[in-house]
Amino acid sequence: MAGSDRVPPRTVYLYVVCLAMLVIGVLAAVALVRSGLALAYPDPAPTFSWTAYTPLDTLSGEQQVALGSDLERRSAIRDAGTAGAALLLAGGVFAFHWRRVRSDG
């Protein structure tokens, strides 16, 4: 076997980065869909909740449910933003490295 059969380390690096970005992109897309579903179909809020800012004895049952729903909505929005940013970043890194792979071939 000749030495020309070996794959250059740069090509291996580019393919490994592309694979990692694909995995990150898939996980981010799943998290984004999950956050979207949490916004569209929220879990029923429990009739009890507690925050460090609001003691329970000052809240009525309806206020507790509203507080739980609000906290869940905020969490879903925050998770959607994080997943969207990860998806955009992974897509950009993948596109950059994939262009390099295509130009070497």
SSE inventory with pairings:
Blueprint lengths: L8 H32 L20 H44 L1
Helix pairs in contact: 1-2
Question: Would you give an account of this structure?
Answer:
The protein has helices at 9-40, 61-104. The protein is an all-alpha fold.
Number of E-state strands: 0
One letter per element, helices H and strands E, the order comes to: HH
The coarse overall form would be rod-shaped
Number of helices: 2
Show unreliable segments: none
Q: What does the average pLDDT come to?
A: 84
Strand content: under 5%
What's the Cα radius of gyration?
Answer: 23 Å
- How does the helix and strand content classify structurally? mainly alpha
Number of domains: 1
Q: How far do the termini sit from each other?
A: 21 Å
| Helix content range | over 70%
Give the biggest beta sheet: none
Structure summarized in a few sentences:
The protein has helices spanning 9-40, 61-104. It has 105 residues and is mainly α. The longest helix has 44 residues, at 61-104.
Q: Keyphrases for this structure?
A:
single chain, 105 residues, 2 helices, rod-shaped, mainly alpha
